[in-house]
Structures are given as C-alpha cells and as structure tokens.
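Loading example: each entry is read as four labelled lines plus one structure line.
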Amino acid sequence: MGKKITIYDLAEQLEVSPATVSRSLNNHPSISLKTKTKVLTAARNAGYKVNKFAVNLSKQKSNTIGVIVPKLDSAFMSTMLAGVEKVANEAGYNLIISQSLESMEKEKMNAQALFQSGVDALIVSLAYDTSSYEHFTNYISAGVPVLFVDRVFSLDDCATIVIDNRKAGYDATKHLIAQGCRNLLHISGHLNRSVYADRLSGFKTALAESGIKYSKANVWESDLDPKNVNELVDFLKQTDVSFDGIFVSNDRFAASCIKELQKAGFDIPKDIKVIGFNNDPICELITPSLSTIDYPGYQMGVLAAQGAINHLNGNIDLHPTNAISLRHQLIIRESTANSFN
Amino acid sequence: MGKKITIYDLAEQLEVSPATVSRSLNNHPSISLKTKTKVLTAARNAGYKVNKFAVNLSKQKSNTIGVIVPKLDSAFMSTMLAGVEKVANEAGYNLIISQSLESMEKEKMNAQALFQSGVDALIVSLAYDTSSYEHFTNYISAGVPVLFVDRVFSLDDCATIVIDNRKAGYDATKHLIAQGCRNLLHISGHLNRSVYADRLSGFKTALAESGIKYSKANVWESDLDPKNVNELVDFLKQTDVSFDGIFVSNDRFAASCIKELQKAGFDIPKDIKVIGFNNDPICELITPSLSTIDYPGYQMGVLAAQGAINHLNGNIDLHPTNAISLRHQLIIRESTANSFN
DNA sequence: TTGTAGGCGTTATCAC
DNA sequence: GTGATAACGCCTACAA
C-alpha cells in the first residue's frame, strides 16, 4: 500500500508549482508541451492517481448519475441500464444504481440518499405505487436534472423517455380483435402509472372503434405480481362472461396467467388468446409462445443518459418538448394464433 | 434554489464555532445537550445539508460500496443485490452497481472506474471469461476489501460467499440417476469459473459412485447463452449416444434447451430428463416445470455486505476462514419426473 | 464543553 | 507559460 502521492509531491519533485502540475494533468491549453510531458511521465512513474474526493469538492460535482428503477431483474431494465451505462461511461460519468423494489417508501429513501451523495443527475423509472413527487423537488430546486424513463411523471421541469403506450395498447387490443376476440379483458397495472393508464386508454379506443362495448368489467387492475395470479384465475373460472381475449400489461404476469389458466383447464389460445407487453425473453420460452409489444429498452437508456449529460454540459436540447417518444412494435406469436397446433 | 448553507453559516447565526456545529451534527459525546439541540433545530430550519464531497475529502472515504455483477437481469442477481443494499443502507453506505455484461474487459473497466471513484469496498461476481485478477490487485494493495460472491476467485486476501457447488452438482446428478437416467450429459459454463468446475466435479463424483463411466463426451462446455442453444440441440440430434438425462448449470439455458428439444421432437421428461440450476422464476413457467437447485441469493448478498462493512469497521471477522458457504436445496419438478402426464 | 487552526487534494483567479 | 493563494466544506487534534 504505497502512500498516496499528490500533486504537491510531484510539484516538489519536479520543482514546479502544484498549479502547473494540475494544469498539465488536465492538459490545460496554456502549458508548454515540454513541462506537460515532463509532468505526465513523472506522474505515471510515481503512480499518481487523482483524488476524486478533492476534485469533487473543488468542482462541487461528482461526475455521477443516479438511477432508480423499480426492479433490476427484468431484461428490459438490464438493457435499459446497459444503454445508460454506455453513454455515461463514455462521457466519464459513473452510475449509482438502486432499486425501489416497487415501493414508494424505498424510492423516497433512495432518492434522498442519492441526492445526499451528490449525484449530478437522476434517472428514474417510478415504483408501482408512487403517488407523489415530493422526493424529487429538492433535485429540481437544486437544479439537478431529473429524467424519467418508461414509468414517468409528467413534470414540466423533467424530461421523459417513453413509448406511445396509448398506441401500443391500442395495437395489442386491435390484434386480439382481429384474431376474432370479442370479450376482452385488460389486465392493467396501477392506473397511477401513466404507462398503464395509457395502455388502458388505447384498449378502450380499440374496443370503441370495433363497436365493442366497454365497461369496468373489462379491466382488472393488479399489481402484476405473479404471486397474485390466482386471484385472477379464480375470477375467470367463476365469471359469467366468457372472455376470449386477454391483454396483459406485462409479460411476466401474462406468462403466469397462461400457466395457471392451463392448469385450470383452459386452452390457450383456443379458448382464450393472450397478449403481453415488453417482449421479455420469457415470451419465447413458454408454451404457447407469447405475443407481445416490443419496445427499445437500450435506446431508451441511451436517450436518458444523453439527455442528462447534455443538460449537464449546458447544451441546449434540440427537442422543442422535453418528452421523447420511441416506437414500439407488435410481435405476434402463438398465444394469439387462430389455429394453434 | 436556496444557496448552500454550511456549518459556518450556522455557526455565525448561532454565535458558536464551526467545530461546535460540526460536533453537534455528528452528535459527538462531549457536547451539551442544550447546544446540540439548538444547533440541530437551527440546521433543520435553515435546511442545512451536509456536503458529502467535503466529508469524503476530509475522511478519505466515500461511504460507498462498489458492486460488479455479470448481468443484472436475473432474479438471483436482483435478490442478491437487494440483500446487499439492505445491509449497506442500514449501515449508511451507498451502492454503485455496474454490470460487466459477462466480459472481462468491461469488468476491468468497471473495476478501475469504481476504484477511481473511491469506493470503500468492492463486491464482485465474476464475468464469464475473466481469467486474471490483476484488475483487483490495486484494491488489495490499497487495503480496499474485495469480496466475491457466487462466481469467485479464491484469493487469500479476499472473502468469498458461495454455496457448495460440488455438492449441489452431485445432488442434481444423483437425482437424475435416481430417476433412472444412465446416459448423462452435463452442460457446463466456462470451467474457468469455479462454480462450474465444481458442479462438474460433483457430476463426476455422482457418476462414479453409481458405476457410470465418465468421459469428456459427457460434458458440453458452453457460454450458457440461450442464443447458442441450437448448437447443442443439433448435437443431440446427431449423436449416437442417446442421452436420457441432462444437468444444465443454469435455468435460463435449461429452459431454452427444453423448448428447442421439444421442437425437435423430444419428449421431456420421457425421452430426456432435465435439471437446471438457480431456481429462477422461469422454472415454474415453462412446461414441463423445471427441476433445479435453489440457493439463497438474498442471504449471500447480506453476508457479502456484512463482510465488507465489518471489515471497514475494523471488526474482526469471526470466521476462521474467509470463505462462507451457504446451503443449497434440490427442487424437484416435472422435468425430471418418471411419469409425466 | 467549546474554540482555534491546520489539513484533506484539487481547482481557479489573479498576478507576474 | 507559470506561480501564489484562496476557495471548496468539513473534521479533528490541540488548546483553552
């Protein structure tokens, strides 16, 4: 454990001032090539490492971006984060990632901890039950940019990276209808989350457009936790309505539904067609394979990080609005097929 | 954006010294309750927030633990990280999480970035192809504790949190044998990773114990990326040996295998029984459901974080060795059943 | 119990 | 092109 060597040590050794050393290290324009290289080699030989703590204090910034996501264990989040990380690292930023585990309380704590630790920007995908945004106001009033991805709040001061969930919900529903479904059920997440509210809205539009009457009985609001899939299946077994098409706002839950419905004697897709959302790898592993909506997690991460960094660099965002919307795609598989062998 | 308020501001306002303010804020023992509360309330009213940058510089520590994992998108990693986070947060530590995406190069870069950013400890689960540990030596020589979880290096200076993979591999194999399998194939990850080497070792032991001859033909070394499952299936279709039992070192890959084998006309478990590893949620979603080995991700995370923090607090570790091994569990499901309806 | 003053390692503003 | 020197905000001997 060689003792830390500082710019003062180098300065002394080279008989120049600490300022010169500092400037050389950061290749400041007004420094002669000669001294610069002299300093650089000396630094390398001495095994000099900048002390980030000092840099941070001096510059009052951490070169760190905080990220809060509901859970880490989905392919969507993983790729989204890979996108964020790529851009962030290239720009010299570190990431502090934390998961709210779908709880607003935890999200609050994380937000506070990240703020305390001095992140330069915050990227958030909201927890299931987050209902207020007070835990972000200190960021906003401190001028720390907050960007939302996927599960967003629409705050004037914050950018959002989303897809057109209304259209996606519409597309999914339309597909079910095109496959002959008439008694549709939409399994939604918490309607506080705009992603779910928007998908429901698209669902309604599709029904209306096809002359299918909508009532509250067509929606099942859920926390989308596979643990609770049985409540739904019990309901489906009892209900008078014979649903023939289900649009689930989440692949994992859709997969569980299918499995449990099969256990309960339903034939998917013959009796009931099912479409999910996310294009999680699970879609291709279950039987029947799951139709779904695909959307670009990596891209969303890239854009979020770029947005943050642009803001930090003081670049003017080119977008007139601060909401970026990406394209989704309907993926048709077996679970919505008309005849499935 | 109220301007930052510092302990000097409070000191001036209260007509005490900055030191007193500092001590009150950190409730130093030698400070009168009266002044302490006075300072505390004043701080609250003024909306005082410590400046972590200054604290870090002063203390030369960041109160941050770095974590590097291969990928974030598995249930195992997510729960492991939840365990780490719980313990870390309770002890006042933040987490910087990054994913190596199974690449040693990325792992190196991450390790370096985290070191630069001054983490107080590092928790690592190694990438698929990591073959050297040079990128950790600067930690060790700087006295920063490095702990490995699950996919570990056995370095003298580093703690490891693992399960008994040898025994787990043995148990999985024994189960296949007990179910009547005689021509066994083990699909392993990279044997550089001790987890996989150990499971293979257990596999061999089980074979030997049951009087089944082992040859290299009984092992298929793979990167366990579901994208490459077809190579395996092609092999299984061509080979003369009619394998009747497969032990896959990873549930996701096992799930893909099952799906592809089914497409190729194999009946699972009738023709071939399959057991995986991890107890990923996927196990219960595929058909047939997947037998596997369960192991305690959350616990492992907790222990890793505790180990790190104990070290940082200078507590003497109670364990005579620095390798902690946790218990695993065989989970029997349909994919290894003798008669499956 | 409280105050003083130096240190933590860099950066940045002036001068020269 | 380079050098002093003052921040940056907090901690902590050492004094009082």
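The two ends of chain A are 67 Å apart (CA to CA).
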